[in-house]
Design goal:
It comes from [Actinomadura] parvosata subsp. kistnae. The protein is α/β, with parallel strands linked by helices. 24% of the residues lie in helices and 28% in strands. The protein has a six-stranded mixed β-sheet with strand order 10-11-12-13-14-15, with no helix packed on it. Strands 3-4-5-8-9 form a five-stranded mixed β-sheet. It is globular, with a radius of gyration of 17 Å. The protein binds zinc ion (ZN). Residues 86, 88-89, 170, 215-216 line the site of zinc ion.
């Protein structure tokens, strides 16, 4: 589920001779339904027209419509895991100035809450304050659903696990980092910590042949 930015390469890199093919940046969210019909949403995308992501992303996002198409009402969702408090992952946590998922606990790492600032603090964290489920480190946050603290992209970045599925947020931004986890990403808060987390977690996931569910790859699912 999610939205995408599309811009011609020739426009982004003027004079480069690159073709008009679009460069596409996807924003994926993931919905988990367990055998008892409990629903967990991992990340909430870019949000509505007035969201903190509206300065740079093609708002409104498509999550609400995609949930409806899947027969899921916002009130049905019991747990929302925010991998981190960046505007392209957390903005859809609110809608019209209220928590978008009225019955959900919002799972956030304490280190990201402590670091939150600007529009994400004012327009997201403050709004969902009464429904926060703050964790420090690794935890089971719903039956069979765990989070693992993976600092680097942000201080409180976390990935989510459900069975063999690993929803990795911005632990990995580009497929090249699967081959070489030491390739840095410009917008990692702490690039050294991000490389350590990426290297360690990818090695562990590869050892168990986990299925990655990535935040920004064109094709979100891949088995390691
Ligand atoms: Zn992101």
């Amino acid at each position: 589920m999610g939205a995408a930015i599309r811009r011609p390469l020739s426009e982004m890199f003027a004079g480069s001779g690159l073709p008009d093919d679009p460069w596409v940046l996807h924003f994926h969210c993931f919905l988990i339904r367990d055998a008892a019909d409990r629903l967990t949403l991992v990340d909430t995308g870019i949000g509505g027209t007035d969201s903190p992501a509206s300065t740079w992303a093609p708002v409104p996002g498509t999550l609400a419509g995609e949930l409806a198409a899947a027969g899921v009402a916002p009130a049905d969702i019991g747990t929302v895991i925010l991998t981190h408090l960046h505007s392209d992952h957390a903005s859809g946590a609110v809608a019209d100035g209220r928590p978008a998922f009225e019955n959900a606990r919002y799972v956030v790492q304490k280190a990201d809450l402590d670091a939150a600032k600007g529009p994400v603090l004012d327009d997201v964290v403050t709004v969902i304050k009464g429904q926060l489920h703050v964790v420090e480190g690794d935890a089971e946050v719903a039956p069979g659903v765990r989070v693992r603290h993976t600092p680097g992209h942000t201080p409180g970045h976390q990935i989510a696990r459900a069975g063999e599925l690993a929803m990795t947020g911005d632990l990995v931004l580009h497929p090249v980092q699967l081959d070489d986890p030491s390739v840095p990403y410009l917008y990692d808060d702490d690039q050294d910590a991000a490389v350590r987390s990426r290297t360690e977690v990818l090695a562990a996931l590869r050892a168990e042949r986990a299925i990655l569910a990535t935040g920004h790859f064109s094709e979100p699912f891949l088995r390691l």
